[in-house]
Design brief:
β3 and β4 form a beta hairpin. This protein has two domains: about 60 residues, no CATH class; about 50 residues, no CATH class. With about 120 residues, the chain is α+β, with helices and mostly antiparallel strands. Helix content is about 30%, strand content about 20%. The structure holds iron/sulfur cluster (2 copies). The site of one iron/sulfur cluster has 9 residues, from loops.
């Protein structure tokens, strides 16, 4: 298990695209090949950005910036906990691929888990 530390620096990198996970084998069956799937998706502005064969997943990225992303890439609802979606509060739950993301992740050790729990309950 990884423990997350740090604060969001409001770089906005995770807010510029919509990312979706689909079932890999079902999707490839429908389209018959990855080339055919990519052709179809390219007409809709969707890119395949990765896959996890073991988990039978394909990852899509769609270039749709969030409507709450401000001109300086800031989240306009960051300071309004109830207006900010739960997914955004929790993101990232694992290391983000963007170099701009300011969160760090550390392997959990019994001591670090205790420290984390203490900080969380303050
Ligand atoms: S609500 Fe804020 S944090 Fe969530 S995607 Fe939109 S801009 Fe980003
Ligand atoms: S990529 Fe990381 S630092 Fe940047 S807005 Fe998203 S969560 Fe915040």
């Amino acid at each position: 298990m990884l423990i997350r530390t740090g604060e969001c620096n409001q770089c906005g990198e995770c807010c510029k695209t919509l990312n979706i996970t689909v079932v890999r084998d079902v999707t490839l069956n429908q389209h018959k090949s990855i080339k055919e799937l990519e052709l179809y998706l390219s007409y809709r502005g969707i890119c395949i950005v990765g896959e996890d064969i073991k988990r039978n997943q394909l990852f899509y990225s769609i270039n749709i910036p969030c409507q709450q992303l401000g001109p300086e890439n800031e989240c306009k609802v960051h300071k309004e906990p109830e207006a900010k979606p739960l997914l955004c509060h929790r993101y990232p739950i694992e290391p983000d691929k963007s170099e701009d993301c300011s969160y760090q992740f550390h392997p959990s050790t019994p001591l670090r888990s205790m420290e984390f729990d203490i900080v969380r309950t303050r």
